[in-house]
Structures are given as C-alpha cells and as structure tokens.
C-alpha cells in the first residue's frame, strides 16, 4: 500500500486548514531554519523572491534594503502574511502573490536570489520547482533552501514512512529524499552546490545553498 500522492488541490485544502494556527504550531520548531535562510539571504543584495512565504514568519528577519516578493499557493496563509507586513511596517516587501511554485509567473532571470523555506516537501513535483527556481534567478544569483530531508534507515525512517500515509492531510511529504536534489543537480551544469548543513532543532532540517553560474 503506497501513500496517497500530493496534489495542488490537497495542498491548498491542507493549508486552508492549517492557516489559523500555523504560527502557533510551527513557528518555534521551524524558527532556526528560517533564521539560517534569512542570514544567508542577508549577505546578498537586490531583488529576492520568497517562494512559499506562508504566513510570512521570516519576513521580519530580512534586512530592509532588499526588495522582496513573496508567493504562496494558499490565499488564507497570504492574508496572514499581509496583515504581518502592515502591522510591522515591512516596507521592503514589494508584493505578496498567490502563485503555484511549480509555475512561477515571472520572466527568466528576474531575481538576484530566491529563498525557499520548507517547500520542497510540499510540492507534488519538486524537480519542476527546482527548475523554476533556476529559471527565475539571475546568473550569479543564489538559491537558498531549508527543508526536512528524510532518513534513509532506522526508526526515524520508519516513523516518517508511517506519517507518509497522511501526507495528503498534512500537506507535505515526510519522506523527502536527498537524492531528489542530488539527481537534479547532476543534470544541471549551470547550478553548483555551495553548502549543505543541518540546522536546529536536533538537526531535523537542512540548509542548502545553490549558485547559478
């Protein structure tokens, strides 16, 4: 018996359900990864695209001299992000748009950097997402991802496989393997892996930095 496949429809339904209490449920556990991603972005300059902005938890972490655009598939999550922008006066946020991460509606080479917090496990086709990120970032730009990478063996892998059967309800895939990223990289002469390192808590998530030649 295989786990039910994710689709944009099931993801939208899941995050409509998560939206009212997403921050309470996930802000703490995902905070270190968001801070690590923001620190990587804050070394850079120019236009930044935040893919999967959700409720905008990382928006206050970005320096104010970048021009930031955020996209998410959930309108309910984005509404919370818009309220956060207004309440905190985050003037560096240019736009927050409903958009499918696998079909970004931006021209090629539109952004100096792209940050993608906790999205690889959410989309039905992560290879297509990675292709889109590489398309919209400028040559010389950077792609910063933070995500859970599934265990390959042991009790953690068993637990993740169990949770995998509820992926359509959760809205993400707990069994995401690193090979999805490594196989994609092996086919891209224009993308270089700059960094891969675990982040807190208990090395549950991984920061990945990619450079587009």
Element layout with pairings:
Layout: H1 8-18, H2 22-41, E1 47-51, E2 67-72, H3 75-88, E3 93-98, E4 111-117, H4 126-136, E5 137-147, H5 154-164, H6 167-170, H7 179-186, E6 191-199, E7 205-212
Parallel strand pairs: 1-2, 1-4, 2-3, 4-5
Antiparallel strand pairs: 5-7, 6-7
Care to describe what's here?
The protein is α/β, with parallel strands linked by helices and 213 residues long. The chain has one domain: Rossmann fold (3-Layer(aba) Sandwich), CATH 3.40.50. It is built from seven helices and seven strands; from the N terminus they run ααββαββαβαααββ. The protein has helices spanning 8-18, 22-41, 75-88, 126-136, 154-164, 167-170, 179-186; strands at residues 47-51, 67-72, 93-98, 111-117, 137-147, 191-199, 205-212. It has a seven-stranded mixed β-sheet. Strand 4 (111-117), helix 4 (126-136) and strand 5 (137-147) form a beta-alpha-beta unit. It starts with 7 loop residues before the first helix and ends with a strand.
In this structure, how is the largest beta sheet organized?
7 strands, mixed
Strand order of the largest sheet: 3-2-1-4-5-7-6
Number of strands: 7
- Can you tell me the CATH topology? Rossmann fold
Helical content band = 25-40%
* Structure classification: alpha/beta
